[in-house]
């Protein structure tokens, strides 16, 4: 999958999160769970893990379990059960290795890759948590729109620091514009959130977009979903600082 295609798909997914955040409630949970499943399908191929079906199952259980755990909590802190979910999936990662056959080659790499993938999938629960926080719905929309714009700008022909700067500025501008349009969120919050999302998008672009495995479909699925899942926990942390 070409860079431009991946950028457009990531931007579209972020736009879906923005719409879900504007509607609020159950749609954010459903979208977050679907993103976790999609990421789980592609990450083992992106990370070249040796036992991909088992790793995908563990990552999917962790991601969906985290989303459901946050959705089920009735009051703050909404992430109170997230450590329990993640710790359980670490145990499942070891169980996954026990179920392997054929010598269990690259054991340490397999466990580390599965646990890392689970952590990235669990991060998507941040969208649900900030969406349920009082005053947090606009934060979801602003963060998702900044992500959509930043992801789209990645496809422009800029390299190195120029590309990172343009991506960050575009996301910051999108966050500021969204804050001006939406009620209950001030301009400073939009700028800070947009800048944070822009830095994250630019960093992920540098880390992943030169990998040869992205020529295949399954790794590309993980690559396009990854910015959306990771941004979830970033938006939650920044949002809690901004809205309390």
UniProtKB/TrEMBL annotation:
The chain crosses the membrane at residues 30-49, 56-74, 80-99, 111-130, 136-156, 161-181, 187-208, 220-243. It comes from the Bacteria. Keywords: Membrane, Transmembrane, Transmembrane helix. The keyword Membrane applies. This is Permease. It comes from Cellulomonas uda.
């Amino acid at each position: 999958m070409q860079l431009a295609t991946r950028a457009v798909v990531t931007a579209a997914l972020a736009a879906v999160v923005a719409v879900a955040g504007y509607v609020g409630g159950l749609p954010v949970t459903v979208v977050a769970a679907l993103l976790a499943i999609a990421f789980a399908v592609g990450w083992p191929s992106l990370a070249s893990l040796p036992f991909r079906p088992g790793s995908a199952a563990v990552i999917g259980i962790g991601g969906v379990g985290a989303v459901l755990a946050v959705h089920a909590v009735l009051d703050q802190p909404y992430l109170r059960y997230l450590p329990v979910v993640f710790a359980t999936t670490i145990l499942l990662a070891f169980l996954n290795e026990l179920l392997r056959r054929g010598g269990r080659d690259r054991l340490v790499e397999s466990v580390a890759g599965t646990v890392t993938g689970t952590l990235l999938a669990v991060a998507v629960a941040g969208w649900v948590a900030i969406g349920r926080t009082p005053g947090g719905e606009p934060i979801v929309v602003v963060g998702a729109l900044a992500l959509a714009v930043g992801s789209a700008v990645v496809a422009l022909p800029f390299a190195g620091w120029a590309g990172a700067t343009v991506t960050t500025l575009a996301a910051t501008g999108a966050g500021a514009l969204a804050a001006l349009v939406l009620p209950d969120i001030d301009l400073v919050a939009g700028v800070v959130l947009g800048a944070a999302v822009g830095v994250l998008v630019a960093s992920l672009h540098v880390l992943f977009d030169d990998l040869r495995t992205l020529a295949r479909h399954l790794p590309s699925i993980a690559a396009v979903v990854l910015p959306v899942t990771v941004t979830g926990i970033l938006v939650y942390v920044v949002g809690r600082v901004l809205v309390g």
